[in-house]
Specification:
Layout lengths: L14 E4 L10 H21 L3 E5 L10 H4 L12
Parallel strand pairs: 1-2
């Protein structure tokens, strides 16, 4: 399928939005919560602007950044009840 030429949902298939999002600098759990809030805000604005969108794709590291040494510290782990 080629370009549909607009943001109108095609009759066969689905409309996807691919988001360009900068990789955040994450130093704390608060930074992750802030990224989640920004992503939710972007989801709402994308759906409002393009109501036919059925799939919204964000980059892999848009929530937690790329600093893998930070991911293994206790502050980045979430607690689950019953676990």
């Amino acid at each position: 399928m080629g370009s549909i030429g607009s943001m109108t949902k095609p009759t066969e298939g689905f409309l996807a939005a691919l988001i360009q999002y900068p990789v955040p600098i994450v130093e704390s759990r608060d930074d992750i919560d802030q990224q989640i809030a920004q992503i939710v805000k972007m989801l709402h604005s994308t759906k409002a602007g393009y109501p036919g969108v059925e799939l919204i794709v964000f980059p892999e590291y848009s929530t937690q950044g790329l600093n893998t040494k930070k991911w293994t510290t206790d502050v980045f782990f979430m607690l689950r009840s019953g676990a």
